[in-house]
Amino acid sequence: MSVQRRLLPNISALAAFEAVARLGSFTAAAQELDLTQGAVSRQIRLLEDQFGRRLFERDSRNVRLSTSGEIYAEAVRSALGQLRDAALGLMSNRHSGILNLAILPTFGTRWLMPMIPDFVENNPDITINFVTRVGRFDFTRERLDAAIHYGLPDWPEADSTLLVRETVAPVVSPEFLAGRAIASPADIGRLPLLHMATRPGAWTEWFEHQGLSAPTGPGMQFEQFGTAAQACMAGLGVALLPLLLIAGELQRGQLVPAPGHPMQSRSAYYLVVPHDKRGHPPVASFRDWLLGQVEREPAVLAW
């Protein structure tokens, strides 16, 4: 067998190896692949003989990856994922391609998604696959082409293009406001405060912006702005929320301003593109379209 051929294993053997590595069981892998357990075992032996390395450690009850197997499994998982993505691209679109995009949960739902039909209409040859990610991740490992990220423009090995800046302000439900004497920002400090897990210092920063010391008492904590907004509308407390994410609730009167000045956050929303995806046509098309939308859409709601 030539060296080149030896380095290109049979795809069926790779699929069997990936399934056993992921499921931790020859039996489960066989069921998933619709093969017999013996067939899966033969595929694994084929790989081990081909490389001269043991990929799994076996005993009477368990199977687990060897050290070499763990390293190889990560590479195989990524390679099979790329092959699946390429096949999906060929089947779903012959001419252009796929854009694998990471979005933030509430920002993606409330700000981005209402505009996406315009992109689809004007770019019928591009299919977008959306995944939700919060915080930084490895673009290569996740097989993603771009991300909408909240933070600073300092993502390593990537270009960060500013989309919108964020202005936050305290809001409450009309019923909550009517039932309490809230005349100044200082009064807010004596009320139940709703906190965002992703913005642990937001209230402290806002109170300092008002020239006040932040209260130190505990408060409910939420992972997503949408949930915090619902809690606020239910009268559970005062929430410090981005205006562009609660425009609908403010316009419908479900949330109303609490006393105090709005504050522009230090961080902002960016389109992040890894350097090796700069020339990917779907990425370029999406970036140009998105920046055009930003120019036409108001970035913040007037207070």
> What would you report as the Rg, rounded to the nearest angstrom?
26 Å
Distance between the termini: 72 Å
Secondary structure tally, helices: 14
Helix proportion: 40-55%
Structural class: alpha/beta
Instruction: Compute the number of strand runs.
Output: 11
Low-confidence stretches: none
Question: Which whole number gives the mean pLDDT?
Answer: 88
Query: Helices and strands, in N-to-C order?
Result: HHHHEEHEHHEHEEHHEHEHEHEEH
What global shape is seen? elongated
Strand content: 15-25%
Main sheet specs: 9 strands, mixed
Domain HTH lysR-type: 9-66
Organism: Rhizobium loti (Mesorhizobium loti)
Family: Belongs to the LysR transcriptional regulatory family.
Keywords: DNA-binding, Transcription, Transcription regulation
Question: Any overview of this molecule?
Answer:
By secondary structure, the protein is an alpha/beta fold. Helices cover 44% and strands 22% of the residues. The chain contains 14 helices and 11 strands. The protein has helices spanning 3-6, 11-23, 26-33, 37-51, 67-92, 105-112, 116-122, 139-142, 174-178, 185-188, 202-209, 225-233, 247-251, 281-296, and strands at residues 56-58, 63-65, 97-103, 126-132, 146-151, 158-172, 193-196, 221-222, 238-242, 256-257, 263-274. The strands form 2 sheets. Strands 3, 4, 5, 6, 7, 8, 9, 10 and 11 form a 9-stranded mixed β-sheet that branches. The protein has a two-stranded antiparallel sheet with strand order 1-2.
